[in-house]
Specification:
By secondary structure, the protein is of the alpha+beta class. It is built from five helices and 13 strands. The N terminus is likely disordered. The termini are far apart. Strands 2-5-12-7-8-10-11 form a seven-stranded antiparallel β-sheet, with no helix packed on it. Strands 1, 3, 4, 6, 9 and 13 form a six-stranded antiparallel β-sheet that branches. The radius of gyration is 23 Å and the shape is globular.
């Protein structure tokens, strides 16, 4: 189906020509087949009135403009790759001690993040995000509600989260963050005393690892003062589908996709978290490789 939509998007139609009508009429039985696309719909979401291919804009000019944009992005990526890791010279990369990944100073910075809550499964928690005072931080706030939806299936509820959007390269290729030159996550936050879970999502090599998640706790002390929090990557533990795994291994720092924050401490009521910036730190005093016991699967007999 995706290939058919791409072909339709790239087709040039001129006035007086009805070739596209013939093409659409021939592909309509194929594209309208419900087996070719997912019929899953989140609870509370309105059903789609049109299929995705019916909303496609068959414009040759826009296709050319899009191609030019992607080629310019590819050119910039190639130049950065030839320059060095992360677009920096090699000597600067090796001596780098800190790096700011995200800071919140404008609405454009907030648009790089996505918020969600248990409303997606029928819950009643609410979460919002906006710029803080003087546009100097991101203010994540809302209300946590642990009431379980009465759908006969959901057993637990009450969470809110904030997650960065995945980086996309030219021609919609996946891009990864390479944090292998650092050993700690460094944040400047101001919370209300409630604990948060910091989550690192990586892109796995195998499909059965797509639900793998690396997490660790972030405790805020509350009050009017900002606090700087350092979390070593060696402390992050592996879980899959909400279950902590027996076979633990360190985070794949060279294939990081997104970073997220989740609150779900089972305490009903309002919450808020202000984030000034999120960065990386290479702490030379931290020598720990991994905080948890790792099992050797190939133990000699």
């Amino acid at each position: 189906m995706a290939l058919a939509v791409m072909l339709l998007n790239g087709t040039s139609f001129h006035g007086g020509c009805c070739r596209h009508k013939v093409l659409l009429s021939s592909l309509r039985p194929l594209l309208s087949n419900s087996k070719l696309y997912s019929s899953y719909r989140r609870p509370g979401a309105e059903p789609e009135k049109k299929l995705s291919w019916q909303n496609a804009d068959f414009s040759f000019k826009k296709s050319i403009d899009h191609l030019k944009t992607q080629l310019s992005l590819l050119k910039k990526e190639t130049q950065d790759y030839l320059k060095g890791p992360g677009g920096n010279p090699l000597n600067q990369h090796l001596l780098e001690q800190t790096r700011v990944l995200w800071q919140f100073r404008s609405q454009e910075d907030l648009n790089k993040w996505v918020i969600s809550s248990d409303v997606e499964i029928g819950g009643k928690s609410k979460v919002y995000i906006k710029l803080g005072r003087n546009n100097q931080a991101a203010l994540l706030y809302g209300t946590l509600n642990t009431e379980v939806p009465r759908d006969g299936e959901t057993k637990y509820s009450g969470y809110c989260s904030m997650k960065s959007r995945p980086e996309v390269g030219s021609f919609n290729r996946k891009k990864y963050y390479d944090w292998s030159n650092f050993n700690s996550l460094y944040l400047r936050v101001r919370g209300d005393g409630r604990p948060w879970m910091v989550n690192i999502y990586t892109d796995p090599y195998f499909s059965h690892q797509k639900d793998d998640l690396y997490s660790y706790f972030m405790f805020t002390r509350g009050g009017p003062y900002w606090e700087e929090i350092t979390i070593p990557f060696s402390k992050f533990f592996l879980s899959s589908r909400g279950r902590v795994q027996d076979n633990q291994h360190p985070v794949w720092l060279d294939k990081v996709r997104t970073l997220g924050f989740t609150i779900g401490d089972k305490v009903n009521g309002p919450f808020q978290l202000e984030i000034d910036f999120i960065g990386l730190l290479n702490d030379r005093a931290h020598k720990e490789k991994f905080a948890y016991e790792a099992y050797d699967k190939n133990t000699p007999v």
